[in-house]
Structures are given as C-alpha cells and as structure tokens.
Amino acid sequence: MSERGLQATRGFYRNYIKKYYEEAHKAKAEKRPVAWVTSTFPIETLLAMDIVPIWPENYASVCAAKQASVELCERAEKEGFSRDLCSYSRCVLGSMFGEEKALPEGGMPKPDFLVTTTCACDTHLKWFQVASRLYKVPLFLLDVPYNISGADSLSLEKTHVDFYISQLEELFSFLEKQTGTRLDKTRLRETVALSNQTSQLWMEIQDCRKTIPCPMDARDAFSAVFFMLCVPGTRMAVDFYTTLRDEIRERARNKVGVVENEKYRLIWDNLPLWFNLKIFEYLNSLGAVVVAETFSHVWAGSLDPSKPLESLARKYLANFANASVKRKIDMILNLAEGFSVNGIILPTNWGCRMMSLGETIVRDTVYKKLGVPSLIIDVDSSDWRNYNEAQVKDRFETFFETLTRKQ
Amino acid sequence: MEVLERFRDCLSKRHDIAKGWKKRNKPVIGWTCTYTPEEIIHAAEALPVMVLGDLRGTKLADAYLPSNSCSFARSCLNAALRGDYDYLDGFVESNSCDNRGKIFDMWTHYTKIPNIYFINTPHTNTEKAHQFFYEEVVKFKEWLEKTFNISISDQALKKAIEVHNKNRLLLKKVYDLRMKDPPLISGTEALEISLSSTVTPKEEHNKLLNQLLNEIANRSNKPKKGVRLLVTGSVMDNAELIKIIEGVGGTVVADDWCTGSRYFWNLVDLDNDPLRAIARRYLDKIPSSFMYHHEERFKHVLEMAKRYDVEAAVIFVLKFCDTHMFDAPLLRDELKTLDLPVLYLEWEHSMSGIAGLKTRIEAFIEMVGGVK
Fold first, then answer.
1. Do residue A126 and residue B323 have CB atoms under 8 angstroms apart?
2. What was the pLDDT predicted at A126?
3. What are the structural domains of chain B?
4. Domain chopping of chain A, boundaries
5. What secondary structure letter does DSSP report for B61?
6. What is the pLDDT of residues A170-203, one digit of tens each?
7. Looking at the partner chain, which of A121, A145, A358 has a beta carbon nearest the beta carbon of B120?
C-alpha cells in the first residue's frame, strides 16, 4: 500500500511556519528581545531566556519555496555581493536592502542583537558582520575549534569542549546584558531536557524509515525538521514530534510506504532545493524514495539536563559541518547499512564550500566499503539560476539505470 | 638591478631551494596560511615554505574538487598531485577558511605528502582564544619535536623570532621606498620581494633585503610614474595581475595582501615567553577576512591608502573566496570615505577570462588618470 502525504505535516507551512513569523512579529511589537541566529548555534540558550530566535536560513528557504528568492538575491548582488556567495545569505541580504512591504511573511523582525558561530561555516560570521553593520546591533561569536579528527560527540578533544563551555558562559553574560534578565538555571535545564526529548523523538521517527517500504519521504522530513532546528527545547516541538512519530509508527506497522514498488532507497546529502521540493515526487515516480537525509540526522544528539553546558557543547561541536569529511563518511556508512540504501545523492550546493568540498572522498570511500554508488549533482538551495532541471533529471535517470543493472 | 632578479629567482627556483635545503638532512615543511607560526618551524631547523599555485593548469585537481571551490587551493592541490611538492617532509593546514578545513582532507586523502598537520586557529582574539591558540602552538611544537626527533629550545625560538622580526622590519623599509613618486620599486617587484620571503630561508632573504636597501638609491631603471594604486583582497601568490596594472599606466604602491603587507606588518614581542609571544603575534596581527574583528583590516587598508598617498584602489577577490566576497562591498564603502575610486574584480587563479579583466583595469586607470 502506498500513500505520499502524512496527516501530521498537512498544512505544515500555514500551521507552523507562517504562524511562527506572525508570532515573532507580534513579539517584536511587544518589545520582547529578538535575536537572529544561524544553524549550529546552541539555540537552546536563547529559548531558555525567552529570547525570540529568528533564523535567517529558514527565512531564505521560505522565500525560495515562495519563489521569491532569486529576486532578493539579485537585490544583494546590486549592492555588490557576489553571485557566487551562499544563496541563503544573498536572499536574506537582499531582504535587508530596499522595500519591505512585499516580502514573504512581512520580512523578518529586526534583530536586537545577533548571535552566530563558526561551527558550520565562515559564511555565517561574514553574513552577520554585514547585518551587524547595517542594523548597528552587537554580534556575539561562538568561536568553535574545528574537529579535524572527525571525533563523535563522546570522543571530542577535551580542550575543544572546555573552550566551548567557557564561551557559553560568556554568551550568557552577553544575553543577560542585552535582555536585562538573569539566566534561570532551572529553566536552562528544563530547556535542555525538552531538547533531548525532541531529539529522541526525532530519531525514533527517523528509525521508522528503515522499514521497507519507507513510510516517510524527504519532503516531509525537510519540513518537519524545522522543530529540531528552530525550536528544539520547547513543548511545541515535543508535542508535534509525538504526533508525527505515532503516525509514522502506524504506517510502518501497516507497511504503508511512500511509493508502491520501492526500487531505489536513497540517502540525500546537503540541503534540498527549497524552490523545488517537487523533485522528491519526481524521484518517487521513478520508484525511488529518500529514506534518510544527512540533514535530518546531523542535529540529533542526546543531552544530559544535569550537565546542560557540556551537553550543548558536545551536541554542536560534533556536527559534521565542523569536522573532517571522515565524520560525514561515518554517518553515511551507518545510514547506508541501517536503512538498506542502494544509492547516495551528493548535491553540490553552488554557494556552499563547506558542504560541497570532499564529496569525491565520500563517494569513493562509501563505494569501496559498501559498494553503494553515489551521484554528485550541481544544485543550489535557493537560487534556481544555478540549477538545470533537465540536466539533473537526466543524471538521475542514468544513475537509476546503473543501479538497476547492479541489482 | 641584479638583486631584484634574485628575489624573482627565489620564487621561480623555489623547489630547487627547498631541495637544496634537504641535502643538509633538514626537513622542509609546507604551509598555506599566514597564520602558521613559521618561527617554530625555523627553530626546529626546518625550512618553512608557503605552498604556492602556478599557471600550469589544474586537470589533476579538477577530478576531486567541485567547480565552486577556491581556485588557489585547486592550483596548490594540483601542484602536489603533479609531484611538485614530493620533497615536503610535512604540511601544515589550518581552519582559516572553509576551503582550507576540507583541503586538509584532500591532501590527506589524495597526495603522497607525509605528516600532514592541522593547527586550529580561532576566529577571535579574546583572552580565551589566546589561551586556546597558545595551547595549539605548544602542541604544534611538540608535534614537530616528535615527528622529526628533535628538541626545540627557548634559545632557538628566540633566535627564530629575531630573524623573523628582522625580516619584517626590512620588508617594511622596502615598502617605504614606495612612498616616493614615482616609487623606487614597482608593485610587481614589491610583491615578488614579500612573496619570496615565504619560500626562502629567512637569513638569506634578510641578506638580499639589506643588499637591496643599500643599492636602491642608485637605481637607474626606476619605475615609471603612473596612477598610484592600492590593491587588496584574497591571497595573491603571483604578480600577474600587478603586471597587467603596471602595463597600462598604473603603479601599485600599497597593498593589503596576506602575502604582502599583512605578512610582515606586526612583530613578535621579544620580551615575553617565546611561545606565548609567537602565539599572541599571530592572533593579534592585522586580521585576515575570516576574523571576527575584520574591521581592523579595513582600518589597515585606509591607513595604507593614506600613508602611500594612493589615488584609487582595486579589490581583487579570488572566485569563491567567501570571506573576501563578503568584505568587498563593505571595504568599498570604507574606501569611498576617503573619496577614492574603487574597482572590484573577481578573478580565477588560472587567469581564465583575463582579457575581460584587463579591459576593465585599463578603463579604470584611464578614468582615474583622466580626472587628475
């Protein structure tokens, strides 16, 4: 039996994303503190202090989904920002210059301050330096050592964890100064506990996708991961994932899959094409289903509420964005085996050095160890000018032919 | 002038110099980022050499690198794959940009170079970052000692600091020659001089610099008078672009390359514990674009513009060099506060599309020269 869409994610955009921006605008009007934040920043710290986190990367994906991103990228390019920069950053920079009225969801509420980290890429820091100058608001940087050995969260170097923790302490002083409120340590532990629960539920959901046929597709995963990324330490996240997990479990039990005759089970690395999530339906039409995204697996980690700072340090420091490619390879090898995968899609995101470099090492190592082939395709997460659909579809079809011959 | 030829030779014969060094049974260590503390390598009696690219194509590296990655890193990797750097006994990389972190993987995976080491470089210079970087520098020293079975004394470190500081002071004096109009050395020569310091034993480079400073006043073939320019942007590992500028009526009198003024502008404090002083110098120097306090670099650029009395500036950003691509519009606005015309150009290390760049440079210089 097959059925594409899930009940829990029906109307996801309207019910959750749109609402998130509406509430953030309301909070801004009520003068509650608003911080802009980037991925791989320990967002739990903001949630524990009732700071409204606004995540420009998410906003860029919203603009892309609404087909508004290229126009905004062009605005940034007119200001002198290179067309080869990350399309997330160009899209958001574009939204910061010029007319606001017509922006999706009324734009992002302006930041009272900015927080970022070098954990994922230089782009985050550089982009926020521009925002800091433009809005004349302070920028806090969590300066993260690079995980060159590709260690997992438990075997990270102690000096790295200590350096991170000492900066979390500085971060709280910064946040206290910006908001005029003291950190409530009980509240921090509660937030970390909720984040842990969110994470565990999300991993349970991912685990169900090991079932053949796979009960959940990438399109739903890339929507639902919003809670892991933006609001992991909240009751709302826990509630949503509980409902979602129950539905996916039920589907797995009843063998309800995304596609009727599953021919190819795929791992999708990097970001999706936010402007064209329909590409996953196209894959389904060829009998293929994405059973795991590295993007879905990278955020999870178990957190110990009795050690909130160390838990956050370990969760974020071990992110593969901040590590030797070995870390990503380890993850893909695990996923490929655990999820009965027969192909890996490695999209090269035009503006993203960090996620694109090293793909040949991933491809070659995984093939050598498991015999699972990879397909490298040229894409862009939000700027469709860097994407040639006909060419990409062609490459998919040739790749699937190879897989068929292999089987 | 013969001595100017010698600097050029240091660059063109850099592989021979390094191989010559090895004949004494001393190691050669390659590095790519100017946040690498060369003094420690020097104190280990090893020769630190910056890994540079070349213009001989990148076919070998193209098989492993996506088309959206840094073309300087591509050229360096290609040189290593071609075997040009087979003589290296070690290679040091750091996380000073997103490309570099992953280039560590590339070199480890695809080249034959042994002993590849990674120095974790903070992006801030707070006291906590200083402590972290100091520990990294200590680890690096210990790694050199263990790998090459030597011991590095405080005495040797102090000696290395002296030699490097001397080199920096002499390079600064050479740069002073550019204040005159026309300058006593051209921009092409200035870049060849600073760049050659990255691949030549520092003692020998100091000798050459002293010779140059003694002889330069009597120079017969002085550079031509031209539009005085400041150049800034990503790493610049050859003088091809400067030659283009100076061939169409420009005279490059100031720069802010990491292989130019930022390479030698700051000294190591000799009164301190040597390792602490070295670590502090690198983290506190005029920052590269990947640093949190990048605005200090803008200040340096503006000071250079005033010190060398420039008429215009050119920002050269290597394709896919994110940190400089983000800085470029901000730096352009900063330069405009001095009423300087600014040209922003993106270029490929391979020099593909150079004809178009040349036309734009020529038009720009004509425009600036015309309004004089």
1. yes
2. 98
3. 19-150 (3.40.50.11890)
4. 1-407
5. H
6. 999 999 999 999 999 999 999 999 999 999 999 9
7. A145
